[in-house]
Amino acid sequence: MQAIAAEAGVTKPILYRHFGDRGGLVAELAARFTKNLMARLRHALTHHSDPRIVVTATINTYIQAIEEDPNVYRFLVHRALADDQQAGRRLLDLVEQISREVAVVIGEQLRAAGADSGAAEPWAFGIVGLVHAAGNWWLTTGTMSRERLVEYIVRLVWDGIATSGLAPPGTAGSVAVPRNPVARIAPAAQPNSLTP
Asked: What does pTM read for this prediction?
């Protein structure tokens, strides 16, 4: 809190008056991160009609968001989780919120294709969990570019989705995902960064 107050150019009492305590600061930071990320993900989920492009855009948006604010992400996911059970609950709430919104889009796509929409929720929670875990690993290791990571995840996810009837004929399997699929996506609208 002392370091944050110094960086903000205020005294610790002013900081405590605004946030209450460290938990209040973490809650505010988590709320801002969540609001920013959800706005970007909603744009990615609804901006394209081609299911493969939706998958690519959404995965890319999540990975790009954690790449842009890695210190905030690490603080919320690692340090805050270790220190604060409420932070853990907030992270689970975020993953659940993202998963439910992804499930709505998957369900609509499956119904439009005349396929069984019962898979929407388990697929959504599985995909979001996969992207979260892979993004966390990538942010820690940095062993490849974001574009390559997104390409690998999309290939894995799309191979499964392509067998569901959502893919146009002749695009099942990894053939459906071109090299560097991220390059085909227009940049998403990006609300202000969390960095002051």
From this structure: 0.73
